[in-house]
Amino acid sequence: MRRTRVALLATAFYPDVLPLLEKHCLRCHREGESAPMALDTYEKARPYARAIRDAVLRGAMPPWFADSKPNEFANDPRLSAAEIEVIKRWADHPKVKGAPRAAVFGAAHLTPDVTFAMPAPFSVPAKGTVDYQHFIVPTNFTTDRWVQAIEVRPSAPAVVHHAVVFVRPPRSAWLRDRAPGAAFTAKGAALEGLSAFDEVIGTYLPGNGPMTLPEDHAKLIPAGSDLIIQLHYTPSGRATADTTRVGLVFAKQPPRYRIYSAAIARGDFEIPPRVRAHTVDITFQVQAPTAIYALAPHMHLRGRSMRVSVDDRVVLDVPRYRFNWQLVYRPARQIPLARGARIEVEAVFDNSGNPNAVRWGEQSDEEMAVCFVDFVIPASASPNELFVTPQLLRGKQP
Ligand code: HEC
After folding, report:
1. Which residue, 101, 102, 320, 343, shows the most beta carbons closer than 10 Å to its own?
2. Does residue 328's CB lie within 6 angstroms of at least one atom of ligand 1?
């Protein structure tokens, strides 16, 4: 009797659990990626059976912080109740292995048409904090190029908190006094001359993999542009050198739509000392019909929650923001915006226990109130005509 019962309950690693890890976990939990341990074989996962069960039951893994009530998200990585049950059953009897096979990894790397690399490796010390590093990489493109997919790939992901790749077209004045070739910090000057033309075209965020846009959608790199790669390195205890690369796949034909990334931000706030919940409101009105493709809240350590609404309808609610996880939320369907629609961002900060006021700044004891928004616009439109408002931090034309 007892044997039959155990056999019925037994859930085996390879046939039952590995498919779930492949789907939800291995983009981070494999060699060379951001998570501290690989989980792609029975032998590697077995010691963590209980931790896996607990992390999944608590909803701590995979990391995801948006409430699903206002919106479904195309990239929501969470497990269903039935999948959680499978993990739990195996973790309760983790000896059952099943027939071994090699894991198949989800987020495959791109095969780029062109790859740009940082001009030289950057040496990340074992300890301490490293200011944001910038590298200018000329594209030498002689015509405008439409990009369908992009992958930003550090050689040492363990020390890269995040990387942002900007396109700087020839008419932008941003960081013009800096030379390509060497790493530089841009403290204070990082935003000087930054305009609506200088657009984020790609990011590296742990576990996110390449960004591939839907058919007929692409990002624009104007002729003569430079890439400016901005890196936030976080020492890992061991001195490490990193060379981050940017791979591009060009669109096969000119797209109908352009994905244009803007930062809806506000820099003139002051978070009073010892306040548990201080709200910074940002309002942004679109000047032409458009749609939202993706949203990415960005605050620092005191960021507590962020809510984004369109004409009073909540489209993203992140009730527990975590600085360590910079996530992008991509609604299952694009959110259409009529001309004049108002996007409202409500950023809440927890400054309790701090005797000092906190203002805008790059360092983690300073703050930011930003929501990166990927807009969908007609390929022929100029983003500047569409989005210039005083609230747009980089709405200034060069
Ligand atoms: C986006 C990348 C990412 C994904 C996806 C992810 N993890 Fe993790 N995981 C991490 C990182 C980084 C850490 C270490 C830092 C931390 O614990 O916050 C971690 C830590 C853990 C831990 C140790 C936490 C603890 O409680 O000690 C477990 C267990 C774990 N992950 C299991 C999983 C499982 C199971 C999945 C899939 C269902 C998963 N993770 C998906 C990145 C990820």
Report:
1. 343
2. no
Going by the DSSP 8-state scheme, the letter that residue 72 receives in this structure is -
pLDDT in tens, the chain (398 residues): 444 444 455 799 999 999 999 999 998 898 877 788 999 999 999 999 999 999 999 999 999 999 977 889 999 999 999 999 999 999 999 999 999 999 987 657 889 999 999 989 999 999 998 988 999 999 999 999 999 999 999 999 889 988 999 999 998 888 888 888 888 887 766 666 677 778 999 999 877 788 999 999 999 999 999 999 999 998 989 999 999 999 999 999 999 999 999 888 888 999 999 999 999 999 998 988 999 999 999 999 999 999 999 999 999 999 999 988 888 999 999 999 999 999 999 999 999 989 999 998 877 788 999 999 999 999 998 887 766 544 344 433 32
Output the CA 211–ligand 1 centroid distance in Å. 21
Ligand 1 centre and the CA of 330: distance in Å?
A: 21
Is the domain of 244 the same as that of 129? Answer: yes
What's the gap in Å between 354 CA and the centre of ligand 1?
Answer: 30
Residue 27, ligand 1, Cβ within 6 A:
yes
CB 377 within 8 A of CB 255: no
Residue 355 CA to ligand 1 centre (angstroms): 34
Q: Do 295 and 381 belong together in one domain?
A: yes
Atom of ligand 1 at shortest range from CA of 52: 29
What is the strand order of the sheet 278-285 is part of? 278-285, 342-349, 303-310, 313-318
- Residue found under tokens 């609610």: 317
| 209 ligand 1 Cβ < 6 A | no
Angle at 269 between CA 283 and CA 168, to 5 degrees: 70
Range of the domain at 154: 108-254
Q: Are residues 213 and 225 in the same domain?
A: yes
The encoded tokens of residue 258 equal 């352009």
| 14 CA from centroid of ligand 1 (Å) | 19
pTM as predicted: 0.89
